[in-house]
């Protein structure tokens, strides 16, 4: 049975190509907003961090009505994939809107999601946006999209994609670049005609796949997913089928569907709809919400295991709390436990110390996003150096291996391969993706990726794109040589800063080991960079509270000074010095006891 009045689509766009503006315009033009309702709030990208990094971390839902059809629009995560989120989100929809800037063309960051969408046989519609740009080159951009689709393995039907030319900013759309109307009708028509309506059986026993989790202080945990079969009703008893196949009885609280940017409370919803449910406090991603008496599981969706662990430690320094919020261990604990309600590949464990929590995730970027978000919320904390999670398999020490995909300019290929070779990576594949760009794929120990992103960005002058997925556990590959992790310390009158992980790495700054004495003015740095290490000396009394994700800017804001190697040496006592090389100074680590 077809549920004709629903379409479920996902939006794929490179950051700044106009996704938010386009969805805003769709909302306005479809009359989903009443005339007196202002779209002040921007639709997607609510997380500042997402914009700065140019990736979308959280997936969000919006819905617009066109004529008598409801179009559910799901945002897709960018190239960073933490535990199979991209695939889960795409499984909620039947088609995708690929938004491409009419001048810039398709960007490598969207390839990962696009490839998944094509593999899942979703129907693509291409929107060439910003057609008003004077430098627009729509015909070439469409050709580039076609080439990309071919390269990513699109089938014949997908290659026959419809194209809409639009100016989201000016509210224009059309089937040809020179035949635009002051309406998005052409886009809505194409969506209704090309994207199949969900093919569903509303009378069959309920099945819904828990795709995303959300959390709201008032209603608690929210389960989001598409109803695959049957209906959900408010207050109804259901069976929750766990990933191991066991059953749990539970009761649905409220049922919400989406309208515009809002969730609306409804008595029931039918198969084909994307809904949000409350009351299912024990539900987890990948589980099936099923009929109480006829429970049948949907195919399990893989959730990648955490491979990297770090300690999050309460900042007990006397300066803590001067500018930010003083964080007690209770607060930190609460915050972390709330995070795991929705962050599926994250684990939190207690340690012997009440002030320290062991947090495990899918890699440095995954953990660093959490750390930066927490810092922005005002949490002051110290973090330990990340370590990979080893396992013993058949009496053998095994380590996590990641499958790494690097899209890089051909000119930096040699250096990147060499860098990864040192990190025990094994090259698996290499292809030209354009005349100047290469895609190189590797199997690499997760530990080899620690600190790699910064070097990678430096070597590719910011043009490289990397993404990795968990590959499996393999026997330990041996020590990775030459990774001196000396700690650089400089003195003045400030306090140590732990920086945001990501920005710190971009500058080659590493992590404070737990228990490292926090000196006034200390900044830790990594000494294996191919350049003079700069010792950063803070002049202010208190610099722990750097909110900026950009270390350069943070230093400037905090009026910190950057010293040369020679100048820095003046601040260092002889007994602390381990080694001086033309590239670095290594200092003895000092411990509290
Ligand atoms: P997102 O990052 O993909 O969500 O992109 P936004 O919707 O935030 O748009 C990025 C920038 O492009 C903003 O400055 C928009 O005003 C601008 N923009 C969006 N659509 C258009 C368009 O059709 N034409 C032009 N010239 N600019 C646009």
UniProtKB/TrEMBL annotation:
Main localization, broad class: cytoplasm
Keywords on record: Cytoplasm, GTP-binding, Hydrolase, Nucleotide-binding, Ribosome biogenesis, RNA-binding, rRNA-binding, tRNA-binding
GO BP annotations, alphabetical order: gene expression; response to cold; ribosomal large subunit assembly
Subcellular location per the Swiss-Prot or TrEMBL entry: Cytoplasm
EC number(s) on file: 3.6.5.-
Gene Ontology MF annotations: GTP binding; GTPase activity; ribosome binding; rRNA binding; tRNA binding
Classification via InterPro entries: BipA, BipA_C, BipA_GTP-bd_dom, BipA_II, BipA_III, BipA_V, EFG_III/V, EFG_V-like
Domain of life, per lineage: Bacteria
GO cellular component, one term: ribonucleoprotein complex
CDD domains: BipA_III, BipA_TypA_C, BipA_TypA_II, TypA_BipA
The UniProt record lists the keyword RNA-binding: yes
Reaction(s) the record says it catalyses: GTP + H2O = GDP + phosphate + H(+)
Amino-acid positions noted as binding GTP in the UniProt annotation, renumbered to this chain: 16-21, 129-132
Ranges of residues in domain Tr-type G: 4-199
This protein's record includes keyword RNA-binding: yes
HAMAP family, sorted: BipA
Family: Belongs to the TRAFAC class translation factor GTPase superfamily. Classic translation factor GTPase family. BipA subfamily.
Oligomeric form and interacting partners: Monomer.
Function: A 50S ribosomal subunit assembly protein with GTPase activity, required for 50S subunit assembly at low temperatures, may also play a role in translation. Binds GTP and analogs. Binds the 70S ribosome between the 30S and 50S subunits, in a similar position as ribosome-bound EF-G; it contacts a number of ribosomal proteins, both rRNAs and the A-site tRNA.
Name of the protein: Large ribosomal subunit assembly factor BipA
Source organism per UniProt: Desulfitobacterium dehalogenans (strain ATCC 51507 / DSM 9161 / JW/IU-DC1)
Gene transcribed to yield this protein: bipA
